[in-house]
Structure formats: C-alpha cells, structure tokens
Queue: 4 jobs
Job 1
Amino acid sequence: MTEPPWWHLAQSGEMDRRAEALEALLSPCRLCPRACGALRDSGQLGVCRTGPEPAFASAAPHFGEEPPLSGTLLPRPPGLGNVFFTGCNLACLACQNASISQGPTPGAFRGTHALADACVALQDRGCHAIGFVSPTHQAPGILRALAEAGRKGLRIPVVWNSNAWETLEMLRVLDGIVDVYLPDLKYADDASARLCSGVDGYVATARSAILEMARQVGVRPVLDERGLLRRGLLIRLLVLPNGLAGVEDSLAWIASELGTGVALSVMSQYWPAHRAAEEPLLSRSLHRLEWDRVLDRLDALGFEHGWVQPFEDDAAACYRPDFDDPAGPFPDAADWGDGSDVFAPPGGGRRRP
Ligand code: SF4
C-alpha cells in the first residue's frame, strides 16, 4: 500500500507541530470564522459546544456516499470510514445531525486515543479512507489523533467533510494532510445563511475556503484503478426549498472560478429536520420543479462529471441518520449507482435520466 502524504508528516513529527499551531488558536478560540473567543483550554465550550478534546458520536463504514467515496466493488464495496464529530460551528435550523451537533451528546467517545483507535479500526474493517464529518471545530485533536494513528498503522487517505465555514489560517495548516476535500457549499447569499444557519458572511468565507482547498489538492479528481477517489475536491450542493441554497448561483460561481472540470454532488435529500418548522421557508421538502431548475442549470453550464441524487426514490428518508443504531447512522443508505446515468466521465458525452 502506498502511504498518503499525511502519513509521512505523522512519521516526521510535522503532524504534531501542525497540531500545536492549531492548539494555539483554541484559547481564546478563533479556530473557525465565528471567533467566539471561548477559553477552550480551560474547559469552556464555544458556540460549537466543544471543549479542548476531540469527541465523536460514531465511527462506522458508510456505503451510501458518492460512488468514488463509498466504492462500488462487488460483492461489497469498501465503504468510507466515517467519523461523525459532535458539536458544530454552524447552527442550522434544518440540521440532519442535530442529535449530535446541536446539544450535549452523552454517549460520545472522547479523547485523542479513542479517535486514533477508531480510525485504525475502520481501516481494519476494510474502509479505503477515513471521512472526518464536521471536523472543523475539532481540527487540533484530529491532527493529534492522526499522528498517533499513523504510528499505530493507519495509512489510508483522509477525507475532510466540512461545511466550508472555515478560516484560511486553519485550512493552510491542513495543506498536505487532507487528501480529499468534501465541502458543502451551503448558500449563495448571506441573508439565507443568516436565516438558516445563524452566521454572517458565509458566502465570501466559504468561497475563499473552497478556493484554498482547490489550491491544495487540485480541481480534477484523482481516482485509482478501483474508481476510488484518492485526491481532489468534491463539492456538495444540497438543494433547499424556496431557492434558499442558491444552488444555481453557486454552480455559476464554481464554473467561473474553478471551471467545469470540478466534481460536484448535487443533493435532493432535504427534509425539514430539527427546528425547520420554525421557519416557513424551510418547512417543506423540495418540489420537483425546483429540482429540475437546478439540473437544467447543470446542463447549461456543462459540468463534466459528478453525481446527482435521485429525486423520486425517497432519498430524504434514506439519508436520515440514527446515531443510536449500533450498525452505524446510515445502515440503509442507498447505493447511488455508478453515477454514469447522470454525469458522464471526463471527456465523455452527458446523458440525463
Ligand atoms: S471553533 Fe467553536 S469555539 Fe472556536 S471559534 Fe468556532 S464556534 Fe467558537
């Protein structure tokens, strides 16, 4: 097995030095763009409800991510080894993971050693990569855990699955550590971000973050012979009702700034979870017309490859996590197929279902 670049940083001690650099941002905390100033070293919880140590609710293989992340090999794909962290630096009214992100998580696993061991265990279960889900506010502990896991035999790629509400200072420390960036680009206007996620200035911050990610890992995805993503950027766009996510505008921005070779994942799985009923614009699922408009924009802009969730097959129900299920939060997640029915591979012609 060829070790990913982060493994060499772990062996040389550079990973620990990077962790130190991030730990220096913890008190008063300015690790994320909120800069809420919590004294996390003293045990204060920030807006993200997180102290100094890493804490996670689940570590399990995920077979329902996009095909190059979960794999499509038969009889059983390798799965992405997802670690779901507790807390979050956003406060989304419709958070799908609210049971672990928006309040106390009594059964959470805590500490660097627990995280390092969980990563090694996922590799032992056959996962081809580790997926850190909502990692931003726990970045220092993650780097400490990776250094330890590297010494314990972990040597698979790292996927950084974030909400893109991240500072350039933090992201630059991750240069050479993250193999695959998997950001959600959640909004195209700040008013929607304020209404739905309780933050100011999301758009410029998230777009800058994604440009930095692209600088680090490149725009075009690098797949191995099994079709698994080894390096690159995959941008997720969840379509919200009433145009709140502004996906059509985000697509235009991506095409303009990164080109049409970047891989996309356009998602239909929205449902009014958590506190969405409090906001009338968020309180229903998508209409077909809203979804079709986004697909039409994809066609018009000519993106070359990526994946689109099905609209009709109750994708929303399929992706509702249950963090109390011992089999993992998504035991019934659907296989998205090989994606070729929606987006063609690079250089190929495109088909629509
Ligand atoms: S990471 Fe958490 S504690 Fe730090 S600034 Fe962001 S919300 Fe506040």
Job 2
Amino acid sequence: MKRIILFAAAALLSTTIAFAGNHANGEKIYNKACLACHMQGVAGAPKVHDVDAWQKRFSLAMETVKKQNPNADAKTLKTKVMALLVQTAQKGKGAMPPGAMCPNCSAKDYQAAIAFMMSKKK
Ligand code: HEC
C-alpha cells in the first residue's frame, strides 16, 4: 500500500514539473510582470524555480479540483489545476493584486509564466 502511495506521489511530482507551456514566452512574461515578487518571494510568494514551494501550491489546488471533479482522470485534473492557478493570478491572492501586474496577459501567457516558475532552474 505504502509503495502505491509513493508511486502516486512521484507521478504527481513529475507531472507538475512537466507542465506544458511555452518556456520562452513564460520567461518573457515572468521577467516583465512576475519577477518583482516571485524572484525574492515577496510577501510569501512562491519563488521562481522553487519546485518544492510550487509543488505545495499545486497539491492544494489539486485538492480543490478533485473535490469539484471526483471522477475526472489524471490528465483532466492536471489541466484543471493549471486553469485554477491561472484564475488565481487573474483574481489575485493575498498580496498579489488582481491580474498579477500583467494587465495584457492572456490565460496562455499566465499559464506559460506559471509553468516557467514551476520548472527547475536550467
Ligand atoms: C505584487 C507581487 C506579485 C506579483 C507582481 C506577482 N505575484 Fe504571484 N503571488 C504573489 C504572492 C504574495 C503570492 C502568494 C499569495 C498567498 O498565498 O497569499 C503569489 C502566488 C501566486 C500563485 C499561486 C497561487 C495559489 O493558488 O497558491 C501563482 C500561480 C502566481 N502567484 C502567479 C503569478 C504570475 C503568473 C505572475 C506574473 C504574471 C505573478 N504571480 C505576479 C505576489 C505576486
């Protein structure tokens, strides 16, 4: 049983890191709009390339998404988690203002920036 749980956790982790998103565009958006807070972790913001910190955010969002979609498969859940994180950037959270200081960002732009911040430092 323990083995299965470990395996599931590892699978979850690898999906997080491999989030789809245009890396170059993500880096551009990050540099323009997100860096101000996410580079140093201002006011508790998860830091760029801090995979553990982002994993925690991902897991919390996953709990919410699973409650809302108890029968969804893993791929659907992952897509919905990313959509929820994008929505959070659009609505704002805590010290992060609505729009996350990127008034012209599309949902795809936010997604790319989030995927970039979640990724390991190259
Ligand atoms: C003014 C500072 C600031 C800027 C600019 C900013 N953020 Fe944040 N962000 C935060 C803070 C603070 C948190 C933690 C909020 C909390 O949990 O209370 C956060 C959390 C997040 C989260 C996690 C939300 C969750 O559900 O836990 C995402 C995703 C995110 N930011 C995306 C972005 C993106 C994408 C950009 C750039 C387009 C951006 N942020 C720009 C301050 C900022």
Job 3
Amino acid sequence: MNTTLYVNATFHEHPDATAALARDGRWLAFGPREELAATQEAEGARSVDLGGGYALPGFIDAHTHLLMMGEALSKADLVAAAGLEEIIEGLAAARAAAPEAPRLLGRSWLFSQVPGGAPHRSMLDAAFPELPVYLDANDVHSAWLNTAALKEIGITANTPDPVGGRIGRDADGEPDGMLYETALHTYLWPAVAGFSTDELRVENLRRALQAYAATGVTGAVDMAVCEDEWRAMSQLLERDGRLPVRIVGHWLINRHEDPRVELDQVARAAELAAAGAAGPAGDWLRLAGIKIVSDGVVDACTAAVHSPYTDGSRPEAIWDLPGLRPVVRAADAAGLQIAIHAIGDAAVTGSLDALEELPEGHVRARRHRMEHLEVISEADVARIARLGIVASMQPVHADPAIQDNWRAMLGAPRIHRGYPWAEFQAAGVTLAFGTDAPTAPYEMLPNLYVAATRRSALDPSREALEPHLKVTLHDAVAHVTRDAAFASGLEGERGSLAPGQLADFVVLGRDPFASAHEELLDGTVLRTVVGAEDTFVA
Ligand SMILES: [Zn+2]
C-alpha cells in the first residue's frame, strides 16, 4: 500500500479540510489534518506539504491535439508577428537557430498579418528560394507553403482538389502555396509525417504532456488520433508505465469518396477501443470513439453557414447528411462515442440531423458530443439540450485578439451570438471546455480568464467582446474538471476531489475565486499531481 497525506492547502469544495489522504493513486478522505493523520490508513504515510496553495481537481483539456501540440512547440511561432515583414524575420531567426535543418517549419500565422489577407508562395520564395518552408495557419485548417515545399511534396497544377478541400491556385491553375481543409489531410500531413520518426513522435508527445503538466492539466482528450499518434501514445505508456497526463482519444475519420473506406476507419476505431478499455492501462490511455470534421473554420470561410459570409461565399459542409448517416450509425452501433466538429450553423444543423436519427436514448447514453459550435441558431441550442449532447467549446478561440477577421467574415448580427457559452448553460447543456491546442494557446489559466471575462488573454488592454456570453469562474472551472470528465463518461473516476476518485489535482499559488480574474494571467501552478505522483513541481 502506498499512502500519501497532503497537508497545508485549501481543498476546493472541502471548506473544512486542511488535509487529504490518498492511497494507491486514489482519494481516501478529506478532513482536518489532526483527524486524518491519526487514522490507521495514515500510518506510515508519506506527508507532502502543498505550500499553502489552493488545490483544485486537475484540469482536463476536453479537446486538444497532443502530438501536433508537441510538434508545434518545436516550430517557429508566428502569432505575434505584426505583418509579413515580421513573419519573414521570425522565420529567418528560426533558420539561424537551426541552419542545418532540411526544411523550415512554422505555425500560428494569421490571415490578418498578410497583405490583402491573401498569402502566396512568392512572399516566402523571396527570402527562401531553395529551402522548403511549411507554415501552419493559427487554426491549423490551412497551410502556406513556398515553391520549394510544394515541389518537395509533389503538388503541381495537375494535382486534383480532394473532397472537402482545396489547393489554392493562381489564375493559370498553378498552385499558389495555400492548402485548405482536407488538402492538408490528403497531401500535407502524410508527407510531413514521413519527415518524422516514431522516436521523434514519442519525444514530441512527451514534450506536449510535460508542457500540459506545468499548466495544471492532468487529463486530455485528443480529438484527432490516427495510427502515428496511437503508436506514439502506446509506446510512451509502455516505456514509462504511466503518463504525465491521462489520455482519451477519438479516432479521426477521414472523408473518402468510397464510403467503404470510411466504414473501415470506424471498424479500426472499434477494434482499438475494445482492446484498450480493459485493464489498468485504460486509466492512462483509452480510445473512446471517433471524430468527424463536418466543416471548416470561419477564418478561412470554410465553415458551413446558413447565410453567406460577408464576401458572398457560402460553402457546403464537408460531410452532407447522406455521407454522415452511415458513419454515425456504424459508430453508434459499435458502442463508440461520436464527436462531431461543427463550427458553422449549417454544419451544426446537418450534424444534429444525423445524430437525431439514432435510436432513442443513445445520444445521451453514449455521450455523443459536438465540438466548437461557434455559430449556432437558437433553435439548435435548444435541440442540443433536448438530445442531451455535450457541447465541447474552447474559450481561447474567442480571445478578442484573434477575432478581427472572424467578426469581419460573419458580420452583424451573427457575431453578437458567437461562442454562446452562457446560452448553452441557460439551456441546461453540459459544457466541456478545452483549448484545441495547437490551434490556440494550451495554457489553462488564461483559457479560464477568457471564459470568465470575454477579454483577451493575449492582449488584456482590448475591450471584452460580447461579455453577455461569459460564464462565472466557478462554472468555467467546472467545465474543465467535472464536466470535461463527464464529456468522456468518466465522471465517476475523474474531475472532482472526492473519495474514490483518482488523485489527480493541481495546486495554485492562490485561491482564484478570491482574486481578480486578471491574476489568472500570471497565476502560478505550484504543483500538478496525477494518481498521487507529482508530474510538475514549481
Ligand atoms: Zn481540434
């Protein structure tokens, strides 16, 4: 038996507790220190001083991309560049730091940084005529390549646009350097994955999990697991016997012109889910279900909307109802949990149509969920409530510092109901919050700040946007702990400081509920603990 007595902290929702006792990685009791120290279980227990901090259940990021996040942490970060010139400067600095690298990888550029909002390979070619340059957009739904990179992955005027995606082209049909939506899945990611190795992937995954531990995260739901990710996760767990962050995965179902290929992917997910559910390994890593990306994003005008964007365009969803129906049915019949990315209101409606056709009660029982829900009709908020669908949303996506283009593309009145967290709460929908890293910063305290203020964590001097849609900090914390656990059907195991639950928690330097919200921006994580083992100590 392995017993730990945690002392010298305030424990969230245990006002009378000055100590907590854990045995074999799970909570036994919370109470007065003298009382717990005197119990039989505490005999021979090691005692850990929590430094007078405030203990919360460990944060669970309900929607993230771990391997991509680890890889992103090693790419040139362009989010703060003021314009094209600073993008090129940032890339030149990254090149100077790794002059021997065979290619240059960057991330997090914004359309608003580029002249006319129209990136072109020639803008990169001027500085990098020979070296392949690959730049992920901030939302990772498009990428900007120079001519050498297009050549390296074999994209030419003759390369066809994939279903649900597009290769940006000049008037003469030559690729212009931009790849959108499924063109990334089809052409870019497999090629870039080929540049990596299992060893590198395991290292990048470890890097992501350690970064998460330092921000108080103890659990994460990876929303686009494919073979490479699953292998890296399994190898890391096998190597270390445990993980710094418990992982729940959703298998990415790629759109394909042959529906049988889509159903094969569902079958693969079912196979992995069945294999991983039993045994103690499931406490660390499990495959819960599938992920379907039903549309794109607002910034690139690829999210499916009922009324056109301000530029007049109105794209279709990536998955129409006839395409969605068999995949949703097969996954549900296999007992898999379904997560559907739907950002535009038309994609939300279409996804709900497919989920609503499932047998009575399945949506609630399997805990099917929808991701993002940035633009949604009031009628569909009510429908999500009625069906019992979990709404998985990412406060950092609403950070005012990255909203200029989003708002310009949608225009009033839609922007006044963008990211309507408060409406979901009022309708009785379970909200699970995440960050969708690396499309947004992964740090959890700034994410909670945006949730509770609708102000910018990147630039706090900016005005709040649509503050009527914010939630209280208490609710925001519940959405990254209790509700995020519920979203994966694990509320009996995770998300609360309660006897019987896994001893996963974070200790903050001060009580966040007794401080100004601004203090979340430089809030200190003193310690992060998973299964009564430290994963981070400041
Ligand atoms: Zn995502």
Job 4
Amino acid sequence: MAKTHDYGLGEYTFPRGWFMVAEAAQLHERPLSLRYFGRDLVLFRGRESGKPVLLDAYCPHMGTHLGTNTTSYVVRDGVHIEGDAIRCPYHGWRFRADGRCDDIPRLRGPIPKAACVRSWKVAESLGIVWVWYDEEGLKPQWPAPELAEWSDPAWVHWKVDHLGTLPVHGQEIVDNIVDMAHFGPIHGLDRVEFFENEFDGHLAIQRMVGPHRTLVDGGDKLHTDTTYHGPGYLLSHMRGRHPSIILIANTPVDDGVSCAWHALLVKSAHAEARAADVAVAREFQEASRLAFAQDFEVWAHKAPALKILQVNCDGPFHLERIWYRQFFNPRARAGEFQHRVNGLHRIRGPALPQAAAGA
Ligand code: FES
Ligand SMILES: [Fe+2]
C-alpha cells in the first residue's frame, strides 16, 4: 500500500475537495459512524433543520464515541439526537451542529471552551452527503455537486452502488481520467476514435468517442464527456444506449486506502419517467457498474504506480499527476500546478464535432 508521501504529492496527507461520505438514504434515526481522512466521524440528520451534521466522533470529556452506542439510556430514551445536536452516551454532554457543547447535565458554572468537537462543512445533493475537506479549514473553493437533470422528471434517479474500500491511493483511481490505452484491453473499446484531455483549474476533463461492447447498440458510438471536479468525484455525460450521467466518487479512508461508489442517472424516453423506465435505467446502471468493475478489479490487485513508465500511446499521466498535486498543497500554491497543465491536450482524432462536444 502506497501513501501520499510515496507519490510525492505534497505537504498534506489528504487532498482538498468535496467528497462523498454517505448516501442520503443511509441517514435514518440513528447516527452513522464513519471513518474518512484518517479520522473517526459521526454523521446524523438534525431533527430541527433536517440537514446532515458531520462531527469528529470522540467526546472531549473522556473520549467516548458519540455515535457508536446502543445500550445507554441516552440512546434508549431517544435523546441521542436532540434538535440539531447529539448527546454523548456516557455522561450526556450535548454537542451542537457547529461542534460546541451547549449542555453538560448538572454542571455548575460555565461550559469550558475546550468542550467542543470539530464540525465539518457538509452539503446534501444528488441523494448524497458530501463533505468539504480542507486541511487549511478554508471555505469551499467550488460548489458542491449539482445537476440540472436531477430535478427533471424525465431522468431516473440513481441508486448508488457501494463498491467498498480498497487499499489503493486516490491517485491510482484519478489516473483513469487520462488513461486512453486501457479502453481496449479492459473495456473492449478497441477503436478509440477521439480522445482528449483538458485541465482547467480544479477540473480535469476527458472527451472520448468510440464504439463500445456493452454500453451502445450495434454500430453506434459511445460519446463521453467526463469531468473530475477536484480529486473526489467525476461526472460523465454519456451518450450511449441512453443519455446518462455517471458518478464515480472516491474518498480517502486512511492514507493509501480509498472508498468508492458508482451511480448512473438515466434519461427516459418520456417527459416523466414511468415504472418501466426505472427498470431500464437500473439495467443500464448495472451495465455501467460492470464496466467500472473492470477497472476496480485491476486496482484491487495492482502494485502502486509510484512512477509510470509512460509511452507515447498513453494518455497524459504526467500532466494529470501534476494537476492532482494542487489539492495536496496550500491553496495559495494551486496556481503553480494549474499553470503547468491548463489547456487542451488532444491525444487522438480530429477536432471534436460540435454535436459530440455537447454530449
Ligand atoms: S465521555 Fe462524553 S460526556 Fe463523558
Ligand atoms: Fe475504465
């Protein structure tokens, strides 16, 4: 297992960006105990605001895990979550959404300043809870993910595939955005007719056209327009058998360990998707998941590519790895990395026809 330092990425162990931490549907009455970014966390839905709250898991009083408890009377009496706050099961200290303790049962005098846990900036969109991770603790550099298609009733909402945890650094996953040469051997896309990458600040983009064995019919071609929005997730607009949008998200669990998800938003043939359209969408998502699982199997078993023996029929790994480094270094230095890679890098094919560019 290789770590951030082994890849020479920068001074921070975990990169800056929006990262998936849970599916919104996982948030029920009980808090969720999570582990990401090398720390234990507790996620719950505030009863007052209805918004998700993400806090560091351990109580500053005596280190109790705020979320993992089933037998205390705090939990059994249903006072574990109160309003937008969570009560520690051990001695009942209560922590607000901003992490400050606002109640210590039977305390005489003021609550100590140190009675707080770290609160994380979260957003809920596309059926997912996201965290803005930033070692500098600054405001998000770009908005949490949104898609206009999500509120269009013609599109069938995805059901997120949980792919599990891998002993693989996010670098190996994000390399995929430039990896032209794997499309034939892994995905059966023998003739990539067009392939280009573009780097634009925090975005890494791939545009590709070619036949595909599973995601298009007969002689049709697959068009994908894929963007990593920072290091944590990509959205790929795909014109295949159905217009659709792939989500692939990866979140560091520990240094060198990643958790990954896949999902597919599918456009139905009707202005308002019907039950039969949902079945078609689920089937197409499964085909897309299986295509992604082809990459996943390789990642699960490979040795770390600390250096890539890059050849001239590869995509521009060397540029993508510079792009990725901006997130492991202070935000003030991001421009240094962007400046070295920003722009269009066409690898194969003529200039993209307009129709494909808007796919
Ligand atoms: S350990 Fe949390 S209140 Fe005592
Ligand atoms: Fe792939």
